[in-house]
Amino acid sequence: MEIILPKTENRKPKTVFIIPLLMALLVGGCGKPPVLVQQYIFDYPSPVMKGQPATGEAIKVDLFGVAQAFNNTAMVYQPQPFKSDTYNYNRWRVNPGNMVTDYLRRDLRNSGLFKAVFSPQTPGQARYMLEGGVEEFQEIDDPDGWKAALALTVTLLDLLEDEVHQRVVFQKNYQAMEPLMEKTPKGLAEGMSRAMEKLSAQIIADVSRAVKRVGNNLPRWGGRR
After folding, report:
1. Cβ–Cβ under 8 Å, residues 66 and 95
2. pTM for this structure?
3. What is the pLDDT tens value at each position of the chain, 225 positions in all?
4. CA atoms within 13 A on the CB side of 26
């Protein structure tokens, strides 16, 4: 396409090419639609804690930390030893530390074993504080099958103790490996949900027993009172 300018005195006709302008307009008008990113969260019922009496105590659950390799919303998988990769266009809805903390608080409330369950920012008195970290949060691709690997570290503190080193009631590592029913990001979300359900039940049972031991003036884990 060209534009012919009219003749004027002492000026010959000139041709002005506007191809660059047309190219810019075409490029701007041919943009592709944004890629849809699928987002996943846990989905499991709170564990039913049968045969355990209520502790009568309130507890606060602090935000869990996350190992740097998993401290984002990427869905991480390990295709082979020493190698790490992530799924394209599939992510966790929130950071693993936030998700683990939110669901553990929910499960502690629904267990009926505690008078109240708070976050540290929530007004309310609580004798105990539960802290922790997400040490592993990924898919493992083994020759014998794909698995969701979840590892947590949990520390229960007695806030009534004046000395910091005496506040630790117990510290424990928890780990679960759940096979994937399907080798997809959705399958990873389902497997990770089962792993969290299993570890949540173990953590709640251990915290409940530890709180009752302290309340009954019995030795703590490790032999300390």
Report:
1. yes
2. 0.81
3. 444 444 444 444 444 444 454 454 444 545 667 889 999 999 999 999 988 889 999 999 999 999 999 999 999 999 999 999 999 999 999 999 999 999 999 999 999 999 999 998 888 789 999 999 999 999 999 988 999 999 999 999 999 998 888 899 999 999 999 999 999 999 999 999 999 999 999 999 999 999 999 977 755 554 444
4. 6
DSSP secondary structure letters along 177-194: EEE-SSSSHHHHHHHHHH
Domains of the chain: 41-215 (3.40.50.10610)
Burial of residue 116 (number of CB atoms within 10 Å: 0-12, 13-18, 19+)? middle
Report the chain's C-alpha Rg in angstroms.
28
Joined together, the tokens standing for residue 30 give 């041919």
Q: Nearest-5° angle of CA 136, CA 142, CA 148?
A: 35
Helix, strand or coil for residue 133?
strand
Number of H helices, E strands in the chain: 3, 11
- The alpha carbon torsion through 184, 187, 188, 193 (nearest 10 deg) reads 160
State whether residue 98 is helix, strand or coil.
helix
Q: Determine which helix (DSSP H) or strand (DSSP E) holds 212, and give its type and residue range.
A: helix 185-215
